[in-house]
Design brief:
Keywords: Methyltransferase, RNA-binding, S-adenosyl-L-methionine, Transferase. InterPro entries: MeTrfase_RsmB-F_NOP2_cat (IPR049560), MeTrfase_RsmB-F_NOP2_dom (IPR001678), NusB-like_sf (IPR035926), NusB_RsmB_TIM44 (IPR006027), RCMT (IPR023267), RsmB/NOL1/NOP2-like_CS (IPR018314), SAM-dependent_MTases_sf (IPR029063). The chain has 470 residues and is an alpha/beta fold. It contains 20 helices and eleven strands. Helix 4 packs across helix 5, helix 5 packs parallel to helix 7 and helix 6 packs antiparallel against helix 7. The longest helix is centred in the C-terminal third of the chain and has 21 residues.
């Protein structure tokens, strides 16, 4: 007698073979079926891929990726934190990952997935099972089935211990190599830790150095500048902002998309770190004798400082020349000026080391020189991994040339502000000292260095120089 529930050969063409489960994607086993990868994690992986493979900048590619995946609100915030955190903290995450591998060589795509998984396990409040399972799904659907088991095993090992224990295991002993320990624990290249410690000065404590590195790893708040004569600070406050403590034009947003604020969309205000605003104000507010009609921003791209200066110049009846060497960045400067009154500013696309204007043309000059960007590591997560000491050496030569041109461009009695978004001494005080020592026709009259852990700004440096009267 035939057993109940058993199919006959007529009704079952697969008799004698295991029955395959149905699957919309054609998988051949339950283990092969994967849930669709959630969009925030896929978006974060796209950002990591673009940064690694195309040398893209995370803060520039992220909005494009968010739009591509249709993310906003909490999903956009999750994708942003995943991508930025994984890039920022890879100096810690990679040694942790390697400690769990029999062979440390990994496909770059697999390492990207693991970095995202480790960030969720060690630095976010994502449940372990969710961080692991979504990472396995992600690698399965983007790389292939092969690495799924490895990703699962590695992340399970990592989830078994808290981050402090992993730091103890993979970082040098702080009692014998403090900078080496901080380089791993706070995820900065060792040479950057050394340079920042030197910039803080010999009186800075070890705790302050650690606080600076921690500040580099904290996501920055969005700060806006209300361009005077075009927007009021109260307008930005009404959009959910809070006045900053130093810049009279600064407003810090608690959240949301700045582009949704009418003043920003119309160019009457702009996203601009308070430190950047203070650099522009150092140039516009420096004491000056005699005429005050012609201003120059020698390295104006992408246009934040130039737009603020143009708005101030318009109120004073002055004229600004905004020069930028790269044409595509000059176009960004022009876009930033769209709300400034006509005739207030001229945007030039020219080489600042070979200026077309007559020496002594300007009353005020800002040279925001190209630099290593080590003062904005919290804002540009990938910069710390791309810059090298050799880059600084090359930049210093260019910085000195540009400062020379700036002093040549200002009239006797006029002022020059030299600025960098870097606190590294070779790019800041040493550049100023080298140029002044060989010229003998200008003097330093003021200087400031801002810090993210002290001031809540990027680590902007600015020195105000005055060209000696004839």
């Amino acid at each position: 007698m035939r057993s109940r529930g058993r199919s006959s050969s007529r009704s079952s063409p697969t008799r004698g073979r295991p029955r395959r489960p149905r699957s919309w994607c054609g998988s051949t086993s339950v283990s092969e079926r994967r849930r669709p990868v959630d969009r925030p994690r896929r978006a974060a992986l796209d950002v990591l891929t673009a940064v690694r493979a195309d040398r893209a900048y995370a803060n520039l590619v992220l909005p494009q990726v968010l739009r591509k995946h249709g993310l906003d609100g909490r999903d956009a915030a999750l994708a942003t934190e995943l991508a930025s955190g994984a890039i920022r903290m890879q100096g810690l995450y990679d040694p942790v990952i390697d400690a769990c591998l029999a062979k440390p060589k990994l496909q770059p795509e697999v390492r990207d997935v693991l970095r995202l998984g480790v960030h969720q396990l060690l630095s976010m409040r994502v449940p372990d099972h969710a961080a692991i399972s979504t990472s396995v799904d992600l690698v399965h659907q983007t790389v292939g089935r092969g690495p799924s088991g490895l990703v699962n095993a590695v992340l399970r090992k990592i989830s078994a211990r808290p981050v402090d224990q992993w730091v103890t295991d993979v970082a040098p002993d702080p009692s014998t190599d403090l900078h080496g320990h901080l380089a791993v624990a706070r995820s900065h290249p060792r040479w950057v830790v050394d340079a920042l410690a030197e910039a803080l000065g010999p009186d800075a404590s070890d705790d302050e150095l650690a606080a600076l590195l921690d500040a580099d790893n904290a996501p920055p708040r969005v700060t806006l500048a209300a361009r005077p004569g075009l927007a009021e600070v109260s307008e930005l406050e009404a959009a959910g902002g809070t006045r900053t403590s130093r810049s009279p034009y600064g407003v810090e947003l608690a959240g949301g998309d700045p582009a949704s604020i009418p003043a920003v969309a119309e160019g009457r205000a702009g996203v601009q770190d308070e430190g950047s605003q203070l650099v522009a104000l150092a140039m516009s507010d420096a004491d000056l004798e005699g005429r005050d009609e012609q201003w120059l921003d020698l390295c104006a791209g992408p246009g934040g400082k130039a737009a603020l200066l143009a708005a101030i110049a318009a109120q004073r009846g002055a004229h600004l020349v905004a020069n930028e060497r790269q044409p595509h960045r000059a176009a960004l400067v022009a876009s930033a000026m769209r709300a400034v009154p006509r005739g207030t500013v001229d945007v030039l696309a020219g080489d600042g080391t070979r200026p077309p204007w007559v020496p002594g043309t300007f009353d005020r000059v800002l040279v925001d020189a190209p630099c290593s960007g080590l003062g904005a590591l919290r804002r540009r997560a990938e910069s710390r991994w791309r810059r090298t000491p050799d880059d600084v050496d090359v930049l210093v030569g260019l910085q000195q040339v540009l400062l020379d041109v700036a002093i040549d461009s200002v009239r006797p009695g006029g002022v020059v502000v030299y600025a960098t978004c870097s606190p590294v001494l070779a790019e800041t005080t040493e550049v100023v000292a080298a140029v002044l020592d060989r010229r003998g026709d200008a003097d330093e009259v003021d200087r400031f260095q801002l810090w993210p852990h002290r001031d809540g700004t990027d680590a902007m440096f600015a020195a105000t120089l005055r060209r000696r009267p004839l």
